Amino acid sequence: MDVLFERDGHAGRIILNRPSALNSLTHGMLRSIRETLDGWAADPEVATVVLTGAGERGLCAGADIRAMHDDAKRGGAGYRRFFRDEYRLNELISRYPKPYVAVMDGITMGGGVGLSAHAGVRVVTGRTTVAMPETRIGLVPDVGGSRLLALAPGELGTHLALTAASMTAGDALHCGFADHFVPAAALPAFTAELATRTPAEALAAHAADAPAGELAGQREWIDACYAADRVEEIVERLLDCGVPEAKEAAEQIAAKSPTMLKVTLAALRRARTLATLAETLDQEYRISCAALAHHDLVEGIRAQVVDKDRDPKWRPATLAEVTEAEVAGFFTAPVDGDLGLG
């Protein structure tokens, strides 16, 4: 089974169970999780839901992007349905009526963030790495990630989105992707105690101060450079500011799809004006459906995962060639209709 469901005392446990694929998500997994959460919401014997991932590497690396690549080449109908069910599940998690504890141990990326970072109780460890790496493959941060990034302190979210950089546990706490730090050595005891104790009680016994992240100390140059309204100007500021980390960020951005960089920046700026996660997910659904029909998604996954040549041929190839009209097209209603959450 790709996802396991267990009853343990008063805890309902969801265990993502594709460790050889870093627990990447299939459509069937999403449907099973939704059905189970709906049932547990009405079950008086389930007091707490606990999400974990099987294996030693992490909670979840996101969607199965090889399958996404193949579906997009066939027209993308399968992944439009995937996104519809995924984003609706993300929204349910954000308002789940019982404590939902997400254990973000190890790698937690993309769709894994969607299953965890909207939870009521979000736990990271010293092994945690959190990322929204979508711009690496010609996509845009989704699963509500654009809202989390938009609401991060200053322009940290813009930096993370455009570069696809990773966060440590301390960074994730600082940027609003997590709430509590539990040392990895204490994790087995913490999760076991959720069968008989409330999350607050278990956290009181096992939570600790997280090691400091790096991003908070880089706010000065990040805020100054990423406050620009155009990706071209952001890159210019990064190259001109004289900070080695800024130059490195500019180089990381230069490797990404020019179209998706501009759409990402527009999505984050718009997300700051949206009142709810549901509205943001509606916007992301439009963008993701449009991305499925765009050359750069198939090409980005090809270069990263299929052929692994790390040499994508983006169309258009430069930021200057991407027009405002092309960017605006990503925010129009998809062929299958809107998500309808907002």
From TrEMBL:
* Domain of life where this protein originates: Bacteria
Report keywords, A-Z.
Answer: Hydrolase
Its catalytic activity? 3-hydroxy-2-methylpropanoyl-CoA + H2O = 3-hydroxy-2-methylpropanoate + CoA + H(+)
Q: Which Pfam families match?
A: ECH_2 (PF16113)
Enzyme Commission identifier(s): 3.1.2.4
Sequence ranges assigned to domain Enoyl-CoA hydratase/isomerase in this UniProt record: 12-331
Descriptive protein name:
3-hydroxyisobutyryl-CoA hydrolase
